[in-house]
C-alpha cells in the first residue's frame, strides 16, 4: 500500500491531531515549530486521546507520531519548564508525561511509534515505551537529560536498558549522542526503517496485520510482556485480563446468576482441569 489515506478527525484538540482510519487511531503532536516538544497541555490532550482509544471498541491499534516530517517529538518544551516541572496555563508545574508513559504501556492495544526526524529527550522515551517503533530514514534518536539538566530514571532508563542492554543505555544517557535510524535498528531500538515517503504506508501495513489477529491474544501478550517488568502493576494488568476471560465463561456466570436468583451456586458441572 503506498497511497495516502483519508483520516477522519475524532476530536479537535489545540496541540495534537487525533484521527481515525479503519480500526486505527492516530495521535499526532502538532507543534512542528518546536520539533513537537510537549507542554503540559499537549500531554493532557494525548492522555485524553489515549483514553478515548482505550474505550472505543472499534479502535484496535494506535499510532503515535508528530506532525511535519522533521520530528517525532523533542521532549518537554524547555520554554515552559519551571521550578519542579513543566508549567501550563494554570501555572502549576507538573511532569504529566510520566502518566502518559504508563498509559501507553497499559492500554490493552498495540501502540506504534511512527518516527520521522527527531525523537529526543522525553520524546525519545515516548517512542521507547511504545510497543513497536517504525522509523523513517531521517529519524534521529537520543537522550539529552544530563546536557539540559534533567533525567528520566523510570522507563526512560530501565526499560531502555531492557531493550538495548545496560551498556548501550548508559552510553545513550551519559554521552547524549544522537543515533541515526540504521544505528537504532542495529541496537534493536526500532523495528523497521523505511524511506520517509513510505513511513505512513508501512506503519499502516503493520497495523492492519495486527488488526487481523485475535484482539484478546494481543491484549494478553501485551500484558504478559509488561508483567515481568512492571512488578505489581504489571501483574495487576495480566491478572485483570485473566478476570476478563473468566467473566466470559459459563462457570463465572453461574456465580453471578446464582447471586441474582438468590440461590446456591452449582459449580459441580465445571471441569477441574489437570
Ligand atoms: C532536537 C534538536 C537536536 C534539533 O536540533 P536542530 O535541528 O538544530 O533544531 P533547533 O534549531 O534546535 O530547533 C528548532 C526549533 O525548535 C525549538 N525546540 C526544539 N526542541 C525544543 C524543546 N524541547 N523545547 C522547546 N523548544 C524546542 C528550538 O528552540 C528551535 O526554535 P527557534 O527556531 O525558535 O530557535 C534540538 O532542537 C534539541 O536538542 N532540542 C532540545 C531537546 C531536549 O533537550 N528536550 C528536553 C529533554 N528533556 C525532556 O524531555 C524531559 C522529559 C520529562 O518531562 C521528564 C520525564 C521524566 C523525568 C524528568 C523529566 C524532566 O523534565 O526533567
Number of strands: 14
By DSSP (H or I, 4+ residues per run), the number of helices equals 11
Q: What number is the mean pLDDT?
A: 97
Distance between the termini: 47 Å
Helix content: 40-55%
Biggest beta sheet summary? 7 strands, mixed
Bound ligands, each once: o-succinylbenzoyl-N-coenzyme A
Radius of gyration: 21 Å
Tertiary shape: globular
Instruction: Please trace the helix and strand order, writing H or E for each element.
Output: EEEHEEEEEHEEHEEHHHEHEHHHH
Structural class: alpha/beta
Low-confidence stretches: none
Strand content: 15-25%
Strand order of the largest sheet: 1-2-3-4-9-11-14
Family: Belongs to the enoyl-CoA hydratase/isomerase family. MenB subfamily.
Site (Important for catalysis): 86, 247
Catalytic activity: 2-succinylbenzoyl-CoA + H(+) = 1,4-dihydroxy-2-naphthoyl-CoA + H2O
Enzyme class: lyase
